[in-house]
Write a structure and sequence with these properties.
This protein has 347 residues and is α/β, with parallel strands linked by helices. The chain contains 13 helices and 17 strands. The strands form four sheets. Strands 3, 4, 5, 8, 9, 16 and 17 form a seven-stranded mixed sheet that branches. The chain starts with a strand and ends with a strand.
């Protein structure tokens, strides 16, 4: 089969690779779509602590935002059959260690991440193998393009559920990428009274308005913290979600938060944060929470999308064929300035 491999920093190639034999509990899936994530781009360039710390080693097969169709099943698989439409967790457990045997997947001693840390071969390929325990059925009312947004939406959901949302809650979201857009959409469906999107690019901020934001702040033109306080009549944001991973916005998040507010940090920060006025976090009595993906969220998001009709295909700004993926990685810096979510059509 064909697979996209990052052979070394700044070198992506599509090459023929073998399809290994299935373990009894594993499933071979034909990939239909796979989204390009900011983490994929950082692995490509090597500009990530995951590479510098040795958690990702080249060559590596990336891609964790995939959807597809069951092609073949292992001898012990009972819940899936060829032709079923599926998505997966973005982590794969060993299914053998003491934690796995007691059902505590989050504490698996040998966990691998799909296409990233301690890599399980990812979704930028014609086929992907997944254990049955990490695969989930897709209902008919979620098409493949929308299904490819499920993985980033699980991270959005992990962030937005760290505080109860009410009609009185003022939510501020820093960043305008897929996770930020997912947070905005979820905050709207959960009934947040005010949703403030903070970012640098007007066209992306407009998409936040389309997704449900009530206010936008361009932090290249104004002091974001001061502006959030101004438009909330001096109250600030009860719940700030920082998704950009940019170190200057950490201070902005603290500055715009209301007293006793909550900060969900939903980004990876690749440089040390110098000059942070940390005392403001203390005097405001803020609760700061680190957020990543979690096991159990994929079926929850599928159920949520099915029941609410939530559709985030509007975040997809570009779709390219698999053959053009290496070229997109090569030129991603100029393209990514306007792109929010790029989907690669595999088959």
């Amino acid at each position: 089969m064909k697979a996209l491999i990052i052979e070394e920093q700044n070198k992506a190639v599509i090459k023929e690779v073998p399809v290994r034999e299935l373990e009894p509990d594993e499933i071979l899936c034909r990939v239909t779509y796979c989204g390009i994530c900011g983490t994929d781009l950082a692995i490509y360039t090597g500009e990530t602590n995951f590479v510098r710390d040795g958690l990702i080693k080249y060559p590596v097969r990336i891609g964790h935002e995939w959807t597809g169709v069951v092609d073949r099943i292992g001898s012990a698989v009972t819940k899936f059959k060829p032709g079923d439409r599926v998505v997966s967790d973005n982590g794969v457990t060993c299914r053998k260690c003491p934690a796995c045997r007691r059902g505590d997947l989050a504490h698996c001693e040998n966990i691998k991440s799909v296409g990233t840390i301690n890599c399980w071969d990812g979704g930028f390929a014609e086929y992907i193998i997944m254990p049955e325990i990490h695969l989930f059925h897709l209902p008919d009312n979620i098409d493949d393009r929308n299904a490819a947004t499920i993985e980033p939406l699980t991270v959005s959901y992990a962030g937005i559920t760290k505080r109860k949302i009410t009609p009185e809650t003022i939510v501020a979201v820093i960043g305008t990428g897929p996770i930020a857009l997912g947070i905005v959409a979820l905050a709207k469906t959960m009934g947040a009274g005010r949703i403030i999107a903070v970012g640098r690019t007007d066209s992306k901020l407009q998409r936040c308005l389309d997704a449900g934001a009530t206010d936008i702040v361009n932090n290249t033109r104004v002091d974001a913290g001061e502006e959030v306080y101004r438009i909330t009549n001096g109250h600030g944001a009860d719940f700030v979600l920082e998704t950009s991973g940019a170190t200057p916005t950490v201070q902005q998040a603290i500055d715009m938060a209301a007293e006793y507010g909550t900060l969900s940090m939903v980004g990876f920060y690749e440089t040390e944060i110098n000059g942070l006025i940390f005392n403001r976090m203390v005097t405001k009595r803020l609760n700061i929470i680190g957020v990543m993906g979690e096991f159990g969220l994929v079926p929850r998001i599928i159920d949520y999308m099915e029941k609410t009709g939530l559709n985030l295909e509007s975040m997809i700004t570009r779709e390219i064929p698999f053959s053009e993926a290496p070229d997109y990685f090569l030129h991603h810096r100029e393209m990514h300035k306007q792109d929010i979510k790029v989907l690669v059509k595999i088959s």
